[in-house]
User: Fold this.
Amino acid sequence: MQVLSKRIRGISPSLTLAISAKAKAMKAAGEDVINFGVGEPDFNTPEHIIKAAEDALERGCTKYTPAAGLPELRRAICDKFARDNGLEYEPSQIIVSNGAKHSIFNVCFALLEPGENEEVIIPAPYWLTYPEVVKVCGGVPVIVNTQKKNNFKITPEELRAAITPKTKLFIFNSPCNPTGAVYSEAEVRALAKVCEETGIYVLADEIYEKLVYGEEKPFSMAAVSPWMMDHTVTVNGVSKTYAMTGWRIGYLGAPLEIAKAISSFQSHATSNPNSIAQYATIKALNSPEASVEEMVARFARRRLALIERVSEMKDVYCIIPEGAFYAMLVVSSTYGKSFGSQKITDSVTFSDILLDAAKVAVVPGKAFGADDCVRISYSLSMKDMLEGLERIDAFVQSLQ
Ligand SMILES: Cc1ncc(COP(=O)(O)O)c(C=O)c1O
Assistant:
């Protein structure tokens, strides 16, 4: 008899962990490592949010809350969805969880029937958690490779071609990690039309919605039509927008039947997310967003500097990111070349040798289903970012 279940054995180990563990160990040993692997804002949680958590502690708000979240918080989330996204949810349609990652797990767990090979369409490059969660929940990830010429955005034709009678769900992430792609309203509507015509559900992951730098503003899939509202689960959270990754609060808005099922499941699986963090989140959602604007302005300056510096490089280039805080650097022209006796064959060897040789940590694109790229995050100081890009440039030029 196997010790571990089939569904757990099916999970791939995280490719990103090995590199980041190595980068951390090198840093701890006093080496001057520049880390482009960071997946969270390098800013502190704003003071007024921290103060709200302190107040909650002082008021003794340290008990269980309803499993789906405090009524006051679910109301604040409804107000946020209405204000920012034009979505009219009732508090009964909102579930607060331990981070958006937990919300995404809940959605897949609620919708996918194990043993039925239900398919979930995931455009690549993708956030590496999606396929693993789908597999754990008994679904079959169907990866659709997007094109660089389309700025890594899935087209309606590509979506339609991937849909089969087994398709249950389409995971749609805009702004996208890792590509930074932001879909326009027209693009969202065109994809929604395919979903409506084929009757599939959408999980819309909008966690980076406030981190956008171009003209284009993100548009919510559920806002397209009443049909889409009834067939979309909208996931969001406070991790990225308010630099609150460690607080672990994410949330979703869903059709009532789905929300009720997730609420029951969550009541047995984890109960409520942390009560103090819920009070802090109420403050975050109900306050003016000057600190968010300040953070976005700083990311925007780094993004421009990054695009400019990469455009000066030979042999590597990036697809211009419009949102989040990542860029995909296309490095496949270095494959087949060597650094000393070490040969670069793919994004993993590129990242590994780069870390050893230039003390720069990047995430291999293989982790996101894009082995010709590496992901660089610009969640680090301008000075470190420019120094790191300098080192990447010199490294690439030194290859033979
Ligand atoms: C695309 C995407 N969705 C969801 C999450 C999960 O965020 P959290 O669980 O911190 O709310 C992340 C975090 O990296 C992400 O990149």
